[in-house]
Amino acid sequence: MVTCSIFRLPALLCLIFTASAQIAIPEPNGRYVVGHSTVKLVDSSRVDPLDPLHGPRNVMISLFYPIPRRSCAKICSTPYVPPATAALFDVSFADFGIINGTFESIQLQVCCSSPSHVAKGITESPVVLFSPGLGSSRLLYSALAQAVASAGYAVATIDHVYESPVVEFPDGTIVPGLNSSLLDPTIPGVLDSLLSIRIADARFVLTQLGRKDVIQKLVPGATCGFNIKKGSAGFYGHSFGGATAIATLVQDGRFAGAANLDGSQYGNLTDTRKPALYFGRAEPSPHNRTNDETWAAAWSHLKGWKREVALKQTEHISFGDVGLLVKLAKAAGLPIPDEITSVIGTLDGARSFQIMRTVVQDFFDFTFRGVKSKLLNGEDKGYPEVVVDW
Question: Is 40 exposed, middle or buried, given 0-12, 13-18 or 19+ CB atoms closer than 10 A?
Fold first, then answer.
């Protein structure tokens, strides 16, 4: 079963980040440019079961939202990782040769200036949530979220506090993750407990995104919250986050469709007719219904549109930003060991990223707009790396 954390990267992967060079993640070329903001959300109705002090449950999110290209006056670089977190990431990986400033050097390109009236229309976009891998950080999936947003979706990436390795709140407060032994997936009941917390986090975040006062913190000038009525939102996630997405889909009628990116499925599922996507791996290390009994069991509950998609020449860690970062690091002149392919697969990082964003975008285009995808129907010969089954 696949529950691997992206953050707990093998030493081999960390070796690529041994020199500080400016690494600019290209602006996505979708129909829209993308704005970016963050906010801390406090659920005063829940006592956080992971908090040693038993305080209210806190959740940290990033919002990537679409802005018409003609309405964006300026594109700016913004840190891929906030400063204190970047420094902590550097320290965490110091034993692998990482030097100070490495993570801080990675930059996203976002719209930083647009007319005030543009904000009024942003909440008309469908909301899509994202949940990261077990013990991972939302920040390591920001480029993919930005790419999905460029297709016309407001994408909110979630950090599950205490489970994420570190969470830095806007006021500078830093919450480290719990000792990894407390999140050990081999301990009976741990994953069920974490899944219930994640589902509650996701449902809470969606509710908050429907509030005008919350959205005005994220998008100054907005005049209302997002539509969070029945069938209004989407959800995708990687690894344990993918399990969270599907489990939340069947529990909350506000979600219209969900995608699981290479994660074994957990939770007690019931039948649903909502669109669902399982996105795994083909050779050399396949992950599909034939070798993951949790996928096979979940498949029987999916009574509507469903697809199983597999990507060749990839590994579990490929389903996020890592492959693209490796590609960009190489272009920036950082040394890339040949053995890196054992971690991220042999498919070119930019190509794997482009396929991932296309699969996710096509799924939500079908879910929200009824647009049929040749790729997801196995009819697009431009993607020989993709295997489709249903």
Answer: middle
> Which residues of the chain carry a pLDDT beneath 50?
4, 6, 12, 14-19, 95-97
What secondary structure letter does DSSP report for 141?
G
The reply to whether omega before 284 is within 30° of 0 (cis) is: yes
CATH of domain 11-389: 3.40.50.1820
Element (H, E) at 276: strand 276-281
Q: Which residues contact 240 (CB under 8 A, 6 or more apart)?
A: 3, 131, 133, 134, 191, 194, 195, 198, 263, 266
Contact yes or no for 198/206 (Cβ under 8 A): no
Query: What was the pLDDT predicted at 23?
Result: 87
Question: What tens digit of pLDDT does each residue of 91-112 get?
Answer: 765 544 455 667 788 999 999 9
- The per-residue pLDDT for 9 is 55
Which residues make Cβ contacts (< 8 Å) with residue 63, sequence separation at least 6? 36, 37, 38, 39, 154, 155, 156, 218, 219
How many C-beta atoms lie closer than 10 Å to residue 166's C-beta? 19
The alpha helices in the chain, defined as continuous H runs, are 11-14, 83-92, 119-122, 142-149, 190-209, 212-218, 240-251, 293-299, 322-331, 341-344, 349-369
Integer Cα distance of 348 and 226 in angstroms: 37
pLDDT of 198: 98
Give me the pLDDT at residue 1, please: 57
Sign of CA dihedral 151, 256, 259, 157: positive
